[in-house]
Specification:
There is one protein chain. The chain is α/β, with parallel strands linked by helices. About 25% of the residues lie in helices and about 25% in strands. It has seven helices and 16 strands. The protein has an eight-stranded mixed β-sheet. A six-stranded mixed β-sheet has the order 10-9-8-11-13-12, with helices on one face. The chain has a two-stranded antiparallel sheet with strand order 2-3. This is Hydrolase. GO terms for molecular function: magnesium ion binding; phosphatase activity. One of its GO terms (cellular component) is cytosol.
Length: about 260
Amino acid sequence: MKVVAFDFDGTLHHPPNGFREEDIAAIDAWRAAGHLAISATGRSRTALAHGMRGSSLAFDYQVLSNGGSATDGANEQLIFGHEVSGDVLRAALDAFGSREGLAIFGTTLGRVDGVFANNIGATHDFTAHFQPMTRADIPDHRFAVVPIWVPGDTQLRAEVVAWAVELGGLEVAQNQDYIDLMAPGRSKGAGITQLLGELRLPRESVQLYTFGDSWNDLPMHAIADVSHSFPHSPEEVRAATDHVIGAVSDVLGGYM
């Protein structure tokens, strides 16, 4: 079985330009040939649906929240979900809830995501549809990721990462300007591996191709048979992949 796993933002989705029709056509042809196409994204269920609105892009399965959950291709049936403790979100609010230059969110295993603090004075397309929430809302939801958005300040971003690592009891992933706090052991690689297990596809029976542009894609690149990054990827990501390509459609057809 041939399986391809795609990151979403920066790989298939390129705001403000949206999707390349050539990439969508290549994925359609891949699926029509009987192979599986999986999204492997840091986005939650609602955030991915928001990002895909108005497009014809389709997948067979979704690995969401950096491997924290997975659904069917229609994003209707939850296949598995791993919760990050609400105490992690409370700790983030205690440490950074009033800090200028960042925003704190909570994405869930359900149908709603929340904004808990936004001290930036701006919104991002990724989170524009999130609902305002407070500490009082935390017990009412099952959170998959606590994303902390730190745009344009590498020193503050490094401080947040160091704080999260010291806090312990969680997984930390960086996706461009976002720092994602997740349940222990979660990553895109772990999520893909678990999904293959749920589908009863032994890893040795699968030829796995991965496409992803950022640091949070490294765990899935590490388990791939063939991995791909892009010219805009950080140097560390480019160095860790087998190929640096211009677009998905440049190479996907050659693997069919």
